[in-house]
Amino acid sequence: xxxxxxxxxxxxxxxxxxxxxxxxxxxxxxxxxxxxxxxxxxxxxxxxxxxxxxxxxxxxxxxxxxxxxxxxxxxxxxxxxxxxxxxxxxxxxxxxxxxxxxxxxxxxxxxxxxxxxxxxxxxxxxxxxxxxxxxxxxxxxxxxxxxxxxxxxxxxxxxxxxxxxxxxxxxxxxxxxxxxxxxxxxxxxxxxxxxxxxxxxxxxxxxxxxxxxxxxxxxxxxxxxxxxxxxxxxxxxxxxxxxxxxxxxxxxxxxxxxxxxxxxxxxxxxxxxxxxxxxxxxxxxxxxxxxxxxxxxxxxxxxxxxxxxxxxxxxxxxxxxxxxxxxxxxxxxxxxxxxxxxxxxxxxxxxxxxxxxxxxxxxxxxxxxxxxxxxxxxxxxxxxxxxxxxxxxxxxxxxxxxxxxxxxxxxxxxxxxxxxxxxxxxxxxxxxxxxxxxxxxxxxxxxxxxxxxxxxxxxxxxxxxxxxxxxxxxxxxxxxxxxxxxxxxxxxxxxxxxxxxxxxxxxxxxxxxxxxxxxxxxxxxxxxxxxxxxxxxxxxxxxxxxxxxxxxxxxxxxxxxxxxxxxxxxxxxxxxxxxxxxxxxxxxxxxxxxxxxxxxxxxxxxxxxxxxxxxxxxxxxxxxxxxxxxxxxxxxxxxxxxxxxxxxxxxxxxxxxxxxxxxxxxxxxxxxxxxxxxxxxxxxxxxxxxxxxxxxxxxxxxxxxxxxxxxxxxxxxxxxxxxxxxxx
Length: 728
Ligand code: ADP
Ligand code: SF4
Hints:
Family: In the N-terminal section; belongs to the NADH:flavin oxidoreductase/NADH oxidase family.
Bound molecules: adenosine-5'-diphosphate, iron/sulfur cluster
CATH class of the largest domain: Alpha Beta
Protein name: FAD-dependent oxidoreductase
Radius of gyration: 28 Å
Organism: Chelativorans composti
Domain TMADH/DMDH/HD second alpha/beta: 514-641
CATH superfamily of the largest domain: Aldolase class I
Helix content: 25-40%
Strand order of the largest sheet: 3-13-12-11-10-9-6-4-5
Shape: globular
Cofactor: [4Fe-4S] cluster; FMN
């Protein structure tokens, strides 16, 4: 290890526990909760194995009054949860890491859709994060009762083997609702001046400390500034004053900024936030606290980590996303293998799964995230190859490059070819969009690894700038197996999910109509007045609008779907909308195009007419009598309507299946966007999976994975019975 990084490996005392180094996986959601103990234990312990000194659960509900269904939290409500979470603590302890639990009570931000309980809060209000979720204003009995929930949960947490117990007040959950005048309108001893607003949190910390403080370190997670000016908590006012009050009760401070209603200011997407973007607020805390302070900020660069600690801004490097993208980040720093780090690109696709509710996390960079238990995938270890087959991979985008990488890691001889002169495929274009430069790390990681792997196995090859491979080329190549990863393209004819049909008059062959690829290629002149016709629910239309508006074009987006809907899930939405407003991009919502001509396009309101649906006879559908059509003028029409797989090569090979055997080919497989357009994360996953399962009789189709769920007749809760019993 480079000596300059040694400070990152110094132990630090937190209450009764010693953290072995300065790498700390803060609480973050993964979709495991307490109901998928195998997933929970494997995902967290892989980080402990990778060198993280501390790892945590996600937010962990202390009582059914804090039920976040359909998003997945952990829960520590009963003995069953204790037993399931103990699987995690035991696995993590095997690697000498500390394990923490983030005790959570959400107030009205937890909608209690499963438990049907009524959450309590300092005053009565509707959540500014949830829909239709009000809390009951707590009276003094309520306050005692809820504080006891924390104490009971802390005792269960200790029994489950946790070393660190949080009273979680960041992201505007209950303790912060008491502290912040934005929510707290009380006039009794729990409202008004700071000392009163802090009382609930301080008393809760004291009670939890009295209950488990000898055995466990007491942590608190605190949003030191809620970014709402004087309406909320401001770091130099209530922020540091609260830290002074609570410092004697806390063994570890975990500090961040922002509230749950816009928590992209905390888990900042790289589109808007650089590494360490919270430090201007976080740095105040060490000035008043005598306890260790940690914080997050997408810290992936060891130089920056060292600087942050040496300059006295933080004691411990907190990380969620960097630990997901690379569970072995600390080990790689320790071993001086910096070029092996799989750097988080800050896309927030991991978070999108939690926001959607239900599904396990995925990661754009790390295809094994969330697959540790159910598919048995280790991020750094691979099963040795099962044959001496040689493999040709056509297309070096996310799918093809990941497939080739994992095949080579497994010892296979692989030839990776691409007509482009760079690895990365679609990522090379996307990373040129405003703010998305860091997405290029996806390509960089694979480029570096493939270059190293080819050096190790001289029979493997990467051929960039190759010719466009035809079916003949593939058949004659001499490989035993072939992987087709030729990607997808944006539609040229306006076809989208809205009408499933081309739009009359639309063609990207015309000089005044362009697809995103044509913009990236710079192959057409873009006129002054631009209309972007959008049916894509993610970032392409807003990103191109930003790019073109910044270049001086007058931009309108005509959209038939909610613009940037998926960006709500990646937390990019609020700032994306602010950018578009600042650039005067006009958004024409709820419209689609009936036809287009040079210089003008006819749009209609998708909710036009015909709310009374009735049978009028064939061809007389009331909704087709839409009379909302209007013409809009443009100089260039940008077509962000839909994508289609580049599947011609595969289809031709499929037609010539009889020739496979004659040419010694055992199988040809299709992955990534060429199979169906998808997220970069899912294309990467496709490539990774195929490489792990290539010896299967039918590797095109995934192996079943291990499912964790209740099985009828098996007592999954201590003392449970599966009889159906009615209370009569
Ligand atoms: P994915 O996300 O599925 O990896 P991409 O579109 O990012 O898909 O990457 C596909 C890659 O395949 C591109 O780099 C493209 O240049 C390359 N490609 C497509 N068709 C061919 C072909 N017939 N011969 C060689 N390279 C190809
Ligand atoms: Fe980072 Fe994106 Fe992976 Fe999340 S999904 S850890 S933001 S690379």
